[in-house]
Amino acid sequence: MLPAAVRTFCQTISLRLWSCYYVPMLSRIQPVVEELSEERVVISVPLIRKNKNHLDSMYFGVLACGADLAGGILAMRKIWLSGEAVSFVFKNFQAVFLKRADSKVLFICEDGLLLDALVRRSLSSGVREEATVHVLALCPESFGQEAVARFDLTISLKKQKNKSSSSLFRKLPRKLFSL
Question: Between 164 and 104, where is the model more confident?
Answer without folding.
Answer: 104
